Design the sequence.
């Protein structure tokens, strides 16, 4: 692959990874909106069990309503995350399928993911072929007899 393609791929992955992170820690006080934390966790493609990390972090300071609020938010977020478009976008950017979508709503996400995975692989094959052809032409030009 040429240098521009490497840079493009690196920047895409860097940007997506930056957008795909969820804070692994939260403020363990009454100001934390656990519904929002759950929703953001789901929208970032993280597993519902991420709550256990928060629970361990907060210990006894975890409000009694935190888990239910988190689960309500996660439920809303995962329904918005597990779509054809989300699966498609994830695969087009070469990211792994996090396999967080519940069975009942997984089908559209998986369909988008598989469609984009095939399209991305084809696009990469075409780019590699174009690069090989460019290298071949350059080699031919370099080995061609010089005209005087």
Sequence:
């Amino acid at each position: 692959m040429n240098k521009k393609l490497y840079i493009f791929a690196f920047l895409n992955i860097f940007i997506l990874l930056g957008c795909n992170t969820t804070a692994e820690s939260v403020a363990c006080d009454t100001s934390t909106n656990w519904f929002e934390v759950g929703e953001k966790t789901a929208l970032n493609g993280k597993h519902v069990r991420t709550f256990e990390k928060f629970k361990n972090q907060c210990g006894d300071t975890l409000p009694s309503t935190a888990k239910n609020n988190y689960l309500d938010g996660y439920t809303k977020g995962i329904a918005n995350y597990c779509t054809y478009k989300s699966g498609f976008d994830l695969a087009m950017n070469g990211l792994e399928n996090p396999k967080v979508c519940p069975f009942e709503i997984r089908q559209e996400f998986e369909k988008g993911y598989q469609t984009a995975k095939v399209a991305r692989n084809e696009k990469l094959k075409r780019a590699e072929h174009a690069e090989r052809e460019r290298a071949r032409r350059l080699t031919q030009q370099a080995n061609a007899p010089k005209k005087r």
